[in-house]
Amino acid sequence: MMIRKICVVGDPGVGKTRLVEAWRGNDATGAASPAVGVSVHRKVVRTRGSEVSLVVLDLSGRLTRAAYPPDFLRGCAGYVLVLDTSGPVSLEQAQWLRARVEAGIGPAPSVVAANKADLGFDPGVGWADLAALAGGEEWLLRTSAVTGEGVDALFERLAQRLLQPAPPLVRRA
């Protein structure tokens, strides 16, 4: 079985911890306490006939205001970028978050969670722009920790990306 460390990132209040709790099968409908620092969870995902054990680092949104501590990101094979799409979403902020993570781990497989689907989708949020940020619509999922919509699929899709062979290195002459 493949074991991969991933991180869940996003601004404070976007629902990162609730998504992880819902994915782990815990009740995500009660009052949530903000994550402090990092919490670590592990769960096996079955996808396309393979099993991937995901070690999930749920990073505090407060960490996004500065550089992520390198120790938190070291060894991460991929990440989930969580956005609250029930209100205005700043694509610039989402791109900045992606850049901060990839500055720590390099280009890596990722999926984007358009979270809080149970609260509706802000019409000002451009789905095509979010899909471009995600690298295609198949890597962008509407999610809700409250209803469970898209939660398992989110982590399954990331596992699928982790199973894909890495692109070949291009040597420059």
Structure description:
The chain has helices at residues 16-23, 70-73, 91-105, 127-134, 151-163, and strands at residues 2-9, 38-47, 50-59, 76-84, 110-115, 140-142. It is of the alpha/beta class. The chain is globular. The model has no long low-confidence stretch (mean pLDDT 85).
Give a brief rundown of this model.
The chain has 173 residues and is of the alpha/beta class. It is built from 5 helices and 6 strands, in the order E-H-E-E-H-E-H-E-H-E-H. The model has no long low-confidence stretch (mean pLDDT 85).
Task: Quickly list its features.
173 residues; alpha/beta; 6-stranded mixed sheet; 5 helices; 28% helix; 27% strand; globular
Q: Identify the overall geometry.
A: globular
Biggest beta-sheet profile: 6 strands, mixed
Number of strands: 6
Unreliable segments (pLDDT under 50, ≥5 consecutive)? none
Provide a count of the helices. 5
What are the SSEs and their pairings?
Elements lengths: L1 E8 L6 H8 L14 E10 L2 E10 L10 H4 L2 E9 L6 H15 L4 E6 L11 H8 L5 E3 L8 H13 L10
Parallel strand pairs: 1-3, 1-4, 4-5, 5-6
Antiparallel strand pairs: 2-3
